[in-house]
Structure formats: C-alpha cells, structure tokens
Amino acid sequence: MTSYLLKNCAAVIVDEGKGPSVRRNVDLLTKGPAIQAIGENLSLNALPEGTIAQDASGWFVYPGLVNTHHHFFQCFVRNRADLDWTKLSVIEWLDRIYPIFSRLTEDCFYHSSVTAMAEMIKHGCTTAFDHQYCFPRHAGKRLIDRQFEAAELLGMRFHAGRGGNTLPKSEGSTIPDAMLETTDEFIADCARLIDSYHDAGPFSMRQVVVAPCQPVNCYRETFVESVALARDRGVQLHTHVGEGESPVIEARHGMRTVDYCAELGFAGPDTFYAHCWELTHDELRKMAASGTGVSHCPEPVYLVGAEVTDIPAMQALGLRIGLGCDGAASNDNSNLMHCIHSAYMLQCLTASTRQHSVPAPLDFLRYATSGGASLLGRTDIGRLAPGMAADLFAIDTRRMDYVGTRHDPLSLIAKVGIGMPTDLTMINGRIVWQGGEFTGLDEAALFAAAEAALATVEF
Question: Is residue 46 pLDDT above 90, yes or no?
Fold first, then answer.
C-alpha cells in the first residue's frame, strides 16, 4: 500500500464538509486509496515506511474533477467539417451522424474510451461517468465491458451509464434500426453489468448506472423497467431531459418531459438528468423537491445555439448540480477543466437577463467536484479531507500564466482557466499522470492503436 507525501504545497483546496477553503503552505499525505492528513510540517519520520515524498512547492492542489455526462464513442467523429452543426439543421445532422455511429466496431468503442479518459485525466478528471447508448448489432453486447477494461488500463474511476434505445424510427425516434434494442435486451444487459462490475463499497472504482438514452427514443416500458431494476439493485438512474424534446413528449403523452419522467418514477435523489436547458422554473422546482439532479454541459451550448441553461435559478432552488463534457459530437474535447471556465463565462454573458445573480466562481469548481459526486451517489470523492479518496490534481503555478492570479486559488479555474495539462493527477492514491506522461503507459502506442481503430470507420 503506497503512501505519498506532497511537501510544501502552496495551496490545498480543503473541504471537510462545510465548503471549500484554502490552506496555504501545508503538506498532504495519502495512504493507499485515501487521504491520511493535511497539515503543516508532516514529518517523514512519523509516516508509514516506504512513503514517497515529493516537493510540491508552488503547487495548487485541487480535488479531482467528477465528470457526470459524456459519450466516449463520439470521440471518433470530432473536428469534421461535414458534420458541422452550423451548416446543418438538427434533423439533417442526426440523419448524417447516426449511420456513422451504427458502423462502429467493438474495438472502436474501446479505443474511443481510452482516448476520452486519457484527455480527461490530463486535465484533472479522476472520476468519469459515460452515457454509452450506442449498441450497433454487429458490435455485440460487450461494449461497456471494454470500457471498464479501458478504465482499468488508465487507472480511471469509472461509472458506466448503460444506455439504450428501443423506439423505432418509424414510430418517431431518431435512431436507425441497426442501433435498436428491445426493452428486455436492454434491461437484461443492465442487470448483467451490475452483477459483473458494480461495487458499492468505499473507494469503489467501478459502478453501473441504468441510463436509457432519452424518453423520445424509448418506449414507456423501457423507463418503467429501468426504474424497477435500479431501485431493486440500488444503483443510480440517468437520461437526457430538457434539450428540446418536451413538445414531442407532450404531443405523445399529454405532458412535458419532467412530469412524464416523474409519473414513471424516473426522478428522485438517485436520479440525474443531462442538460435541462429548456425547462421552466416550475419544472425546476419539481426537480428540486424530488431531489433529482442536473448534469450541466456548458460547451454544447456554443454549437447547438440554444438558450443558456439557467444555472442561477437552479442553484437558487437548491437543485443538485454537476458538470459534464458531453459527447464529442456536440463538444469536440473531453476537457472538464475547460468546462468549468465555459460554464462560468456563459452565465456571465447572460447575467443581465436572469432573475438571480451569477453564482460565485467557487461554485463552478464545486459543481465539478462535490456536486458531481452527489449526482453519482458518492460520499467518498469530490473533496480533499482526511478519510476521503486520494483523488486530486496539482498545478505548478510558478509560470507566467499565473502571475497576478495566485492570491485566489478558489476562483482560478472558473475565472482564468487552465490552459495546459496538470502537473500531476492522482486517482485512488495512485499517480496516473505526472510530468507529461501516463505512468507505466506508452502514450505514442495508445495513440497509434486508437488511430488504427478510427481508420476502420467509413465516413
């Protein structure tokens, strides 16, 4: 069981349950998967034998970021002019992109997962939730198994959202037949994955979330059965809500999406929705009352051109809020650190149109850490304090990029932004990235393998 001592940290963002604060010029000690102590002048003589000490002078140490919405497989459709949102309507875009998704192979899902998680780790993300809803028939059912394999390779703490689509295009969905499953198929594989991988214990590295893709692309029974399975097995629920589909749901079912999900039981403290930009304040109140959380994905707002999500109203109503990168089809990077800055700046842009004030910069860091942990049902991650998981990242601020900023570590990421990879990322007490390298891995080989898998896709 390895222990690390980070000596002379310029600042550590500590949160013992009462909110983040800054401790200056302190040491941080880990033991195995957990943080052992944070304090001044921790002596090596009194520490576990074999403790590895590291000079952290100039470092700002933050809790590891917690991503709460992504679609890893979409990393293979990034930066393509032929799929540019600005040149296509939403329907044209969907008609063009889903046939591409339906051609992905099992290896594509594995290597795109490695690609996404590697980028996230480089930028301080230590827990990743992925909403994997794409299951082409030819690719088989072991796609999430391969994602767990990728997470283990990189040392990422991984929550797998087993998504799925059951409604045919002929009945109003946007999903090609090659990507459809029956409700029974979907639920059976969710159960298999929970039995095979879900670990609800402290410092768990593997969990499973039941996550039907979205109400417009699934039969009602799919959501009903998802609720029954998740509540029976004690796992979280997730889906897309409030991204323009409410009029469609109202036409089909006589109510908008939030009420529809609540009627089915797909709401509560064990449930979180992605996006929610089109919701009314009354709908947000209902979500707050039920304890349902929101994964806010700020960067797709730039591409989709929809209204900016009313985060001030959500916070004022007491909703649980996390941040997500979203998939590369609507955000061409997997950098949750950048999303903190984007989320704050977007709210500043629309401040004059809001009833409530923009939350403090610190709150946006909180959304990406303890807020994300709350959405995933975790009490052991998202904060730096003794007894919490040793999930953290460090930035050496002795650079020109940070001149004039170092007086306020709490606001730095949201207001200034971090434009480079971390100097160190630690997950569950293990250093997985340091000094520009993945520990024990050859990034050039990972790159070559991912590019070879990408080359098999026909665009």
Answer: no
- Calculate the alpha carbon distances from 250 to 3, 72, 183, 258, 404 in Å: 55, 30, 22, 10, 52
d(CA 239, CA 261): 10
Q: CA dist 21 to 381, 392, 413, Å?
A: 16, 15, 15
Q: Which CATH superfamily does the domain covering 65-375 fall into?
A: Metal-dependent hydrolases (3.20.20.140)
Listed residue (261, 320, 315, 318) closest to 295, CA to CA: 320
For residue 306, what pLDDT is reported? Answer: 65
Question: Which tokens in the block code for residue 382?
Answer: 């998202």
- DSSP line for 162-218: E----S-GGGT-S--GGG---HHHHHHHHHHHHHHH---STT-SEEEEE--S-GGGS
Start-to-end C-alpha separation, the chain:
47
The answer as to CATH 1.10.3720.10 being correct for domain 3-63+381-438 is no
Domain boundaries, the chain: 3-63+381-438, 65-375
Q: What count of other Cβ atoms lies within 10 Å of the Cβ of residue 70?
A: 30
Of the candidate ranges 46-60, 158-172, 221-235, the one whose mean pLDDT is the lowest: 46-60
Does residue 159 sit in helix, strand or coil? Answer: strand
Q: What is the mean pLDDT of the chain?
A: 95
What is the distance between the alpha carbons of residues 459 and 453, in angstroms, rounded to a whole number?
Answer: 13
What does the block give as tokens for 330?
Answer: 């609507």
pLDDT band at residue 90 under the 50/70/90 scheme = low
Please state the length of the chain.
459
Please check the confidence at residue 83 and state whether its pLDDT lies above 90.
no
CB neighbour list of residue 178: distance below 8 Å, 6 or more residues apart:
102, 136, 137, 138
442: Cβ contacts below 8 Å, ≥ 6 apart: none
Which parts of 51-124 are beta strand (E)? 52-55, 59-63, 65-67
User: Tokens at residue 246, please?
Assistant: 């409410």
> Residue 242, exposed/middle/buried by CB under 10 A (0-12, 13-18, 19+)?
buried
Phi-psi map region of 49: left, alpha, beta (phi>0 left; psi -120 to 50 alpha)? beta
